[in-house]
Amino acid sequence: MARDASCRARVRLPPLRHVTATRPDEDLPAPPPSTTHPTDLGFGRVVANQVRGRFLSHEGIPTSRKYGIGAQRAARFYLGALNVGWLAFIGWLVGIVLLMNGCFALAYRALGDGALHGAAALGLEDPFLRAFSFSVGIFTTTGTGGMYAVGATANWLVVFESLAGPLTLVAAAGLVIARLTRPRMRIRFSESAIVAPYEGGRGLMFRMVSLQPGELSDVQVRVNLVVFEDNDGRRERNFHPLTLERNSVDLFTLHWTVVHPITAASPLAGATPESLLAAEAELLILVNAHEETFSTRVTARASYTWDEIRWDVKWASVFASTTDGTLAIDVDRLDRTERLPEGATRVPAAGESPPVVASRSS
After folding, report:
1. R_g (Cα) of the chain, nearest Å
2. Cys-Cys link to 22, which of 26, 213, 214, 277 (CB 3.0-4.6 A)?
3. In this predicted model, what pLDDT tens digit does every residue of 66-79 receive, in sequence order?
4. Domains of the chain and CATH, by start
């Protein structure tokens, strides 16, 4: 008995809540304002309803424009130089240097044959080739091989080129260094998203794989569905965040199939190809991850519109066999699918609620 009493003494009851009784005819106080984040991704609901077409390209490039800030040609050139492939970057770099030297060579030739002396020892008979060789020597500060300029105008041109050449080469070297040291995430997304069978129902899926040799960790993905819906007779564009089977992975060494289960609570419940067409549906995808080489966060974006979503298919295997038994995938198989019977996923699965993707207003 003493032990039972001691046990009861140690039990702590939760504090009672103070409840105020109200009569049915009394007005209840207004609920507190919602603390949930807006779902328009920062576009704004008014602006989002005025936009026609997709928000992002399939590669994740925003389709929006900004006026009143000037052409910004230098900034756009810099960003283009960072984002273009290495082969194109080197080709443009060599082409610009050759073009500049060709322009200086034409300027030397315009001064006449007496503007450059000392070319006899080089064995160059062509006048333009002599001027071009002299220009390259001045531009790169490697020397002109005995040639020299004669006359005030020619020497002023040499002074100008001796300043423009090193500055151009320093800028080119800076671009190369920026490209080498810029943290980035190269993600390849599947060409299309699919609606495939998933756990007795349907699921919206797409694939992605990292193309860079560096490792990514703590990879997180968010997917939003953008559709036009009828609201009290008005056709307006709404944003719906999609719940994913898994929205993050710790290791991203192979590929990842991102799945949104289409359940009764899903914004895509009851969806068909026709309803997505009528709603002008678009999937906006944002991926961010920790890049281990530079120890920083990097991001990638992608988009799928209604006509980039396939039905009645399922993903084919991307795994490849190896002699030592290690895990391996073939990235070339990322977009491969297998056909399913007609209507396998075009028809809503049992248990889905009526379509919430509105039809086009007449």
Report:
1. 32
2. 26
3. 778 888 888 989 98
4. 73-181 (1.10.287.70), 187-339 (2.60.40.1400)
